[in-house]
Amino acid sequence: MKNRLRVLRAEREWSQAELAVQLDVSRQAVNAIETGKHDPSLPLAFRIARLFDMPIEDIFDDEHD
């Protein structure tokens, strides 16, 4: 699944570790999501969307257009 997490994080000048703390996950989990190696759980996707104050669909793209 493609996502804009790295771009959104960079816009706020947050490190992966800083984002991980805010989301209550490991830095490795943030890296895996950003690189597309892991898709977030639905609860985590909702936490990410709330943190960035955006709809989930604006952050994640299932590539099935």
UniProtKB/TrEMBL annotation:
Q: Key word Hydrolase present in the record?
A: no
Q: Can you tell which superkingdom this protein's organism belongs to?
A: Bacteria
This protein's UniProt keywords: DNA-binding
Which Pfam families does this one have?
A: HTH_3
Task: Please name the SMART domains in this protein's record.
Answer: HTH_XRE
Where's the HTH cro/C1-type domain? 5-59
The UniProt entry, under PROSITE patterns, shows:
HTH_CROC1 (PS50943)
Cross-referenced PANTHER family? DNA-BIDING PHAGE PROTEIN, TRACRIPTIONAL REGULATORY PROTEIN-RELATED-RELATED
**Which protein are we looking at?**
Helix-turn-helix transcriptional regulator
Q: Which organism is it from?
A: Qipengyuania polymorpha
